[in-house]
Every structure is written in structure tokens, then in C-alpha cells.
Amino acid sequence: MELRELAQSVVADHTAAVARVREALVPLRDAEVAERLGAMGVERLKEVTEGRLRVAALEDGGYRTVGSVWAATVGELQLVPGVGALTAGQALAAARQIGQAVERTVTVWLDVDEPDARTTALVVALHRLLAAGPGLRRTVEAAREIEARLAELLPAARPARGRLRMLVAGREGRARARAAVAAIEELTADAGRRGLPGEFRQASVDLLRDPPSDVEAWVDFELRSADYYSLLAELDARPPDAEAAQGYVPAEIGDRVRAEVLDDSLLKVSLRGYQSFGARFLLAQRRVLLGDEMGLGKTVQAIAALAHLAARGETHFLVVCPASVLINWTREIRARSALRPLAAHGPGRAEAFARWRTDGGVAVTTFDALRVAGEAVATAMLVVDEAHYVKNAGAQRTRAVAEWAAVAGRVAYLTGTPLENRVGEFRALVRQLRPEVLPRVDGRELVAGSQAFRRAVAPVYLRRNQEDVLTELPAVVRVDEWEEFGPQDAAAYREAVASGSFMAMRRAAYASPRSMKVRRIRELVAEAAESGAKVVIFSYFRSVLETVGKALGSERVTGLLSGSTTVSARQRLVDAFTAADGHAVLLSQIQAGGVGLNLQAASVVILCEPQIKPTMEHQAVARAHRMGQVRTVRVHRLLVADSVDQRMLETLAGKSALFDAYARRSEVARATPDALDVSEGELARRIVDEERARLSTGGPPPA
């Protein structure tokens, strides 16, 4: 029957696409294993054999590393004087045992700046699956379910194909056949109502589409590398560390969370395994604190929990967050789910809250706006981002959050700030969520170590670290931080647009030391200070860096690199920044610090504004993300919505990004990158004209 054929085709096409990914992965992993084994001295084989293996003869025969033994055969090893069949067999078995252990831990990196045939093959194979859209996994799962069900029903329904068959089937056989036919008809009708035949056809078309050019695949990888690495981890045959992915929660809690069935029908993204567990933890434990390290996707886990509840018929949800991340929340909700976000802050917050109370959706508001939002409304879920903001029980914002939490069906506090060593702050948050857990949080668990602490507070607290669950993540994690203009910034921006000054438009977000961008920079720097991370802050404009430097204070900033800084002074500043004990901040004009310097001491990079030339941003980030960097580099690019920042991204996207990728991979670009970037004058004129039209400011023509 047609439905079964469609389902079988989708499953077969998806299986073939997955096989191509795994085939492309094998040589990359083997090469990584060989490199690691090649760095191990052959004496390591003794550890596996508990000292019984004599390796001196192997070393004399030129086998000086585990890798050289691993790549050999028993016959080749026996050619070495003094190495018999027993020794050769033991040596090769020990080398393979070490190789298997290494293979379970190796990480495959996809270097966008130095692609080769093997990494390109993997990126192209992953692109085929990602291009089919976020709904592919659900479509394939539905196809498998239908195929399995029909495989069960069709044999039972076979007698119904003819009268004679029904006659010889007997009474029970005829009854089974009729029941099977009815079930098949209902299954087919249900599939039609859900639009599955059309989804199956489209999925097969997507999976069989000709692969893109290598450059197109790499460009897509650059734009959403996290999606590629997530899919790669999902398809990797190696099982993850289940305990680490589940935050070392006790078995009874883990069982309850895993039993929670997550409805992802309203999600537009696929969740990693640990993210799915986190979302189900929020649902199953009801009032909890999600403390995952930054970069693990606390936001998407919360959105997944909201989407689950919405799919089950709930209508009202509330997110409370600092003003600096409010736009990020509305954008993430819209991009990653079918939920409807409603920003409730600023002058129109009262009207927005009134509309939300009537129509429902996800209201996103700030701590300050919540205090004047009126009587608390019962919500299916309250999400509080940067929850350490409400650690002070006597603060007005804490009392306001507590009032809304009291009438919420579920409450999720989110914070990436480590709390294991802050018993007072942790107790304050636990008291708001689950006071019955407080007796477990008296400091004794901390003495036993962080894992013991997490088990003790598991009913209310879940934290995972990057090193535990994201071993395959790229060394660079990029985050776009969307802000809004403050009053002074908005006025400066309108004046700049009216005057036609493109550069003044780009600087306007820093017109005030209290601007939202400056505030967000202070938050990011404070967060980096918590973990002792060093930060480099880039801007095209020296005046912007001076504003940021004043806001941060001289005790944090080690110096400012500008175009007028001499070569020797530049190196002294970098050396001082590198030698600083723990946290430090270096300010740099992107033209001065973006090339020729090694800033691998920095693990946090902040870009104050988007750059006209994509190569400029790549070069700046490469100062920190280079050989010698041992930590994941977090890159935060600050943007203002509905401004020159957004227009620049829109204009530089698509064909311009593709052209830039081609250019950066050509020999000409390596010699003269500036000659191949988009025209600054053309870009400036276009953006100024667009912003004038949007703001209806008029004014003189742009210079």
C-alpha cells in the first residue's frame, strides 16, 4: 500500500544519509586516534599488561610509540629480533586495548579555516540531514511507527483480500482480519489527517537532493555550527557519560525524569540528550534550579518545557529576566518554538500585560517591570533567568518573583553562576523553591565534593559542565546578544540617522555609560570574573572602548590597544594581560588587536558592534582561538534590534556571506583580503537610506 511504501522510503533514505555521516566520521576519528597513540611512548604498553610485557626489543626495532605498534601486524612485529609470536601478540593486543580506550574519548573538530577533503565530506553529509529541516526526526519517527504497525497488521488482514481466503481462515481468522482491516483504515485516516503522506514525500525529496557545493556547506556550518555538532553527537555511536549528562542525580530521580515523556511537537529544533533530560527535569521536579554552565543551552531547555506544556493545552507562561537579555529571550522563543512571545516592559508594559492576561502566550518581562505588573496571574510555568538576581529575600524584586512563583504550576530558576561554594546564596534560592530540601544544604556536602553536593540537592538542582557533556563542541561558541536602545542612545541614534553619519549610527549605542550594551558588557565581564576567565573586548571605535573602560573601572582593565599604540607597547600590554593572575580585561580597537597578536590567554571575546568586513571579526576571534588555547572560547557580539546593527547583519547575510566564504578560501584572499570584502560605501549608503525611511527622519543626503 502507498502509505507503507512512503514510510519505508523515508526510513531507507534517512538510514542512508546517516550512514554517509558515519562513514565520513570514521577516517577523521581514526586519524585522531593515530595521532594520540603516536604521542604515547611504547612503554605505556606495560601498564596494560601490568608490567609483564618487555618492550626493549620493540624499541630497538624502531617501534618507539604505541601508535607504531597499533598500526603493525603480528607478522611485522615478529620480524624484530627478540620478539616472538607471544610477545608480538601481547604487544598488539595491548596497543589495540589502549586504542579502543582513546577512541572512546577522541573529539572530531571541524576547522572552518583549514578545511580538507575529509572534514568537507563530513560537513556535506551533515548538511544533507540539517537541510531537511528540524522536523525530519519527528517525520522519520512517525514513518518507523507506521511501518512497524503495518508490518504487524498486514499479515493479519491478508485473508480479507478475497472471499475464499476468508472462508478458509476460520471464525477467529476472519475476526482478526476484520479487526486488522479496521485498524489499517484508522491508521491510514489518522496519517492523512496529520498530513504524514505529504511529509514523507517531502522528507524523501530533501534527503535525496543533490548535495550543495563544498563552500555552501561550510558557509552553513559557520552560520550554525552548534546544530552541526549537535547532530554529530546524536549520530555518534559512542554512548555519552549518562551520569554526567544527568548531573549525577540519584537513581530514583533519574528514573522519574526519564519517565517524563517530552512533547516536542511545538519545537523547531532538536534537543541534545542532556538538554532533553534537563527539560524533563524542569517538568518532573516542578520547582527547580537549572544551573548548567554557560553554553549548554539553559534557554532552549526552558523553551522545550514551555512548548511541552503548550502542546498539552496550557496557555499562560511568564519569563522574568534582566533587561539586557529580554530581546534575546523573545527571539529565541520565536526561533526555536511555535510559541508566541510578548515583550512586557517599557512604556507599553501595562497594555502588554493586559493583552497577555486575555490572550495568553509567553510574556517576557524584567524584574523591575514585574514589580508593577499588578496582581499575580496563575501560569503554567514561571521561568526566572539569571536567578541569582533574587538571592536577597528582602529585595523588592525577590518578593515580586515570590508572589508569581506562589501561583505558578511550575517554576524554573536558571543561572550559570556556580553555586556549590556559595552556601548562603544557594540556600536563599532553595528556600524559595523547595524549603524542605534546606536541611541538606548546610555545607557538609561540599566537603565531600561537588558530585556529592549535587546528589544531596538533586530534588531541586541540576548542573552539567561543558567538559562533561560537550566534548565534541567546537572551540568557539558564538552568541549574539540583542539589546535595546536606552533613552539617550535612542536620541543619539536618531540624530546620527538624520545627519546621515553611518559611523555615528554605529557608535550611538554607547552614547551613555548606562546604555544597555554597556550594562550587558558589565554583566558578561562579571560572569567571567566569577570563573577567573580573561576577557578581550573589541570595537572599531576608540571612543566606545573608552566608554566601556570607564564603566568597568581601572581595577579590571589592564590596558587599551589602539591604532596609535606602538609595537613594543602593544606587546607589553598583551604580556601584562597574559601574566595577570586570574581574571583581567583588555580593550582593543579591532584593527589594532585583530591581527599580529596572540591573545590565547583570553577565553571570552566581546565584540561591541558588528563589523563591515566579516574577515575583520574572524581575524579578531582568531587572536584568542589559536594554538595554545586550552579552554572553549566564548564570543559575544552585541547588537541592537531595529538599528544599524540589524541592518548590517541582514545586508551581509546570504550572497555576501557566500561570497566572503569563497574569497577567504582562495589564494587571492589570503594575500589581499580587503580587496574582496563588500563595499563599505555602498553598504553605508544603503543602511542610512533604509534607516531614514524607517524612522522617517529625512535630513541631508549621506556623505
UniProtKB/TrEMBL annotation:
Keywords: ATP-binding, Helicase, Hydrolase, Nucleotide-binding
Residue span, Helicase C-terminal domain: 520-684
Superkingdom, natural source: Bacteria
An annotated Gene Ontology molecular function: hydrolase activity
EC number assigned by the record: 3.6.4.-
Listed InterPro entries: Helicase_ATP-bd (IPR014001), Helicase_C-like (IPR001650), P-loop_NTPase (IPR027417), SNF2-like_sf (IPR038718), SNF2/RAD54-like_C (IPR049730), SNF2_N (IPR000330)
Domain Helicase ATP-binding: 279-436
Enzymatic class: hydrolase
Signal peptide: none
Xref: PROSITE patterns: HELICASE_ATP_BIND_1 (PS51192), HELICASE_CTER (PS51194)
Pfam families noted in UniProt: Helicase_C, SNF2-rel_dom
Protein name as annotated: DEAD/DEAH box helicase
Lineage: Bacteria, Bacillati, Actinomycetota, Actinomycetes, Kitasatosporales
